[in-house]
Each structure stands twice: as structure tokens, then as C-alpha cells.
Amino acid sequence: MLVLASGGDPHRELGVDDRAVKALAADLWSEERRARLTAGLDELALRSRDLPRVREAVLVLARDPDLAWRLYALALLAEELGAED
Description:
Layout: H1 2-6, H2 19-28, H3 31-47, H4 52-63, H5 65-84
Helix pairs in contact: 2-5, 3-4
């Protein structure tokens, strides 16, 4: 949150490439968490085989685990910001 606040208005719209998102993603990263993310995406791809749009989105994330991890960090920041309102 400090990185977010130091970058200006903490209530501005966040993006996946924002400095605060990348910083949180780096802070949370570990081999174990990355492996769990990959396994979760694989399972989700199997479960979504009858939902073509969902499956395609999951496959995009599975092909780019760095993006998936940053999106996870973005979701955590958004949740935290929403809790403050």
C-alpha cells in the first residue's frame, strides 16, 4: 500500500503493470506459490473444457504465468482498496 500511495492518488485505477502491483507480486513470489498457481490453472483448464471463453482465458494465463501472478497481486490490491471504502 505504501508503494501505491507514494505513486500519487491511491484511489486511481490500477493496472497489471503498475509499480505497486509488480512490487507486491515480487514480495509474494516463491517457488511453492508459483507451483500452486500453475497447478491451479491446469485444474481450472480441465474444469472449464465446456466453457470455451473461460478455458481460453485460463489457457492465456497458463501460457504466461508472470501475467497470472501479477493479476493475482492486482486482485489483492484491489481487494485491499475496496476494504478501505
